[in-house]
Amino acid sequence: MLNLNDLHFFAQAVESGGFTAAARRLGCPKSTVSKRVAALEEALGAQLIHRTSRNFTLTDVGRDVYDHARAAMIEAEAVEAVVHRRLAEPSGIVRITTSVPNAQFRLADRLPLLARQYPKLLIQLHVTDRFVDLVQEGFDIALRSHFAPLPDSELVQRRMSEEPITLVAAPAYLAEHREPATPDELAGHDGLMSTMTAKVWRLSDGGGRAVEVAPQPRLFADESVPLLKAAEAGLGIVCLPELVSAEVVKQGRLARVLPGWTAGSVTTTILTPHKRGQLPAVRAVIDFLLQKEAADVHAAGWMAG
Q1: Which of 53, 128, 133, 236 minimizes the number of CB atoms within 10 Å of its CB?
Q2: In Å, how far are 71, 72, 84, 283 from 79, measured between CA atoms?
Q3: Do 202 and 264 form a contact (C-beta atoms < 8 A)?
Q4: Does residue 267 contact residue 161 with C-beta atoms inside 8 Å?
């Protein structure tokens, strides 16, 4: 295989118009340039340059070799530029919008880690449950959780996670009331419901079975934290995404109910306008969030195993 350094010396000699000028440009002896070009000619088995005391001209083969040598040098410079861009410390403002549950249970612990890793970044987090138009309102990133696929748009989508919605209750509640062994038995239990209109839980198992059950409504709340606190207080059974309940289940304050059944799943997606997503600071935030999510999922799976 050819020595790429020899191609570099050759290209510099051609562009400088001679060995002497190339040596000055490269900061090395003229003899070094001459030897490297001679070594390239020997490796190729062809004369690349006509040399006389007054003339420095390329042979036909030399012109072809120079074209490829210059292309190789351009590619090498591009590789170096890519690495430098990657290693450059991200800086500037990155505006993120997300819902209240994502802010509380997904970003609250991670944004301080992000800020420590990239001290030149300034993160602006806007928390709202209303729909935000990223382009019109000037946001770089949105984290959206959804039950159905998002509609097609010009936004770039990166799936962050997909997690089941599980049933949980306080151990004290389960001790006081008979723990349900089947979904049908939920009808005799107190349910903590998310809306006044949704009084039925649609459950499915891994085998394709699906049922609808209607617990006795004990409390209604359209926000995850009040439902979580009500369940911890022993008021009844609640359906919540694992993101919301995982930590308190791990701590033993809540326990899974009917672990073989779920109430569907929720997907969380990172969206960003195409051009904004190419900015180094925005890319750094997206990569960090995806890597942290993957690491946390791996850790949770390892602990569960």
Answers
A1: 53
A2: 12, 11, 9, 19
A3: yes
A4: yes
Extract the tokens encoding 99.
């819902």
Residue type, 205: D
Residue pLDDT, tens place only, 156-201: 999 999 999 999 999 999 999 989 999 999 999 999 998 877 789 9
Tell me the pLDDT tens digit for each residue of 97-139. Answer: 999 999 999 999 999 999 999 999 999 999 998 888 888 888 9
Closest to 286 (Cα-Cα) out of 271, 275, 300, 267: 271
Give this prediction's pTM.
0.66
Domains of the chain: 4-87 (1.10.10.10), 92-162+266-304 (3.40.190.10), 164-265 (3.40.190.290)
Other C-beta atoms closer than 10 Å to the C-beta of 262 total: 19
Q: How far from each other are the two terminal CA atoms of the chain, in whole angstroms?
A: 50
